[in-house]
Amino acid sequence: MQGARSCPYCLSTNTKDSSWKSSDEKAGRFWLKPVRCRNCHKRFVRFRRVPLALVGGALALGLASAVVVTFRGVDTRSKSEHEKLIAELEPMEAERARAHTGDPEAQYSYGMMLSQGGSGKAEDLAESIRWLERAAEQGHVRAQYELALAYKLGRGTLQDYPAAGRWFMAAARNGHVGAQYHMGRLHRIGEGVPADLIRAYAWFNRAAAQGHGAARGARDEIAASLKPEQLAQAQELSRASSMPDPDQPLPAAVVRPAERSGDTRGTETLADAGEKKAGTRPAVLH
User: Fold this and answer.
1) According to the UniProt entry, which residue ranges have a biased composition of type Basic and acidic residues (predicted)?
2) Of the residues 70, 80, 98, 245, which has the maximum number of CB atoms within 10 A of its CB?
């Protein structure tokens, strides 16, 4: 069985305590502790070790409060207060109950708890995939990205590169920078999607525009291997309002005679075509 501090990605026990990246990430997760793997450098969470005396004291205090309320013959605890108490004492069960209501954020959170903070058993990992799928199908971007990673790595499910490509694509279209970087990698080597350096450049370019350092380096490496007309098409595709599906042909840029003579007023680009279709000017990425 995987240890409490072992990495769920590479199973290494060489880990160290990490910290929350923001107050939003920390909110509502006081029972979890961020940990980083020294081997694969990925972050995950585990349950905090709570001293037995503290748990016993909390239970004793709760029991004393219940006795006082019963003795007085007054039931002052509302349903919402009861749910809060359950959430404090049994966080995974409380999150599971919220996930069953259909809330995609709760489904994502519970799926991640099973994947990163659970026992590490195969049944917990498989259950986490089912909850991530439910959230991803409702458009939850982080669930789409984590589900894609699970299919790519074969974690909790059979390794499935085409499925990974579909979910990375969904998250990338929704602006997830990590998914955009992975789409660039998939197209660069043809893993689950057709090998296509023009598409790879476009996805790396979009991720680099959001500050992804590795994407910037990969983009520049591909740029050095493209012909000038291919590079121009790749940059046009980067600026398009939407990216075509991996199995769909790339739209060709329309080059009119006016452009050949140096007058670009009559030139329609991929970005212009996207603007006409969507009714808005797409953001310019460099």
Assistant:
1) 257-266
2) 98
> pLDDT per residue over 91-137, tens digit each?
778 888 899 999 999 999 999 999 886 666 788 899 999 999 999 99
Q: Are 269 and 286 in contact (CB under 8 A)?
A: no
Q: What percent of the chain has pLDDT over 70?
A: 66
Which residues is 45 bridged to in the sheet? 34
Closest CA to 187 of 179, 177, 195, 198: 195
Contact 155/11 with Cβ under 8 angstroms? no
Long-range contacts from 106-112, C-beta under 8 angstroms, 24+ separation? 107/131, 107/132, 107/134, 107/135, 107/138, 107/140, 107/143, 108/132, 108/135, 108/140, 108/142, 108/143, 108/146, 111/135, 111/143, 111/146, 112/45, 112/146
Taking the alpha carbons at both ends of the chain, their separation in whole angstroms is 48
Does residue 178 contact residue 186 with C-beta atoms inside 8 Å?
no
Count of residues making up the chain? 286
Q: Report the pLDDT averaged over residues 243-268.
A: 58
Alpha helices in 34-160 (DSSP H): 52-72, 79-89, 91-99, 104-116, 122-137, 141-153
Q: Which of 160, 209, 168, 163 is nearest to 185 (CA)?
A: 168
pLDDT tens string 75-98: 455 556 655 655 554 677 888 889
Output the furthest CA–CA distance in the chain (Å, rounded).
93
Percent of the chain with pLDDT over 90: 45
The reported pTM is: 0.59
**Whole-number Å distance between alpha carbons of 166 and 206:** 18
Residue 251 burial (10 A CB sphere; 0-12, 13-18, 19+): middle
Q: What tokens does 87 get?
A: 């959430």
CB 143 within 8 A of CB 111: yes
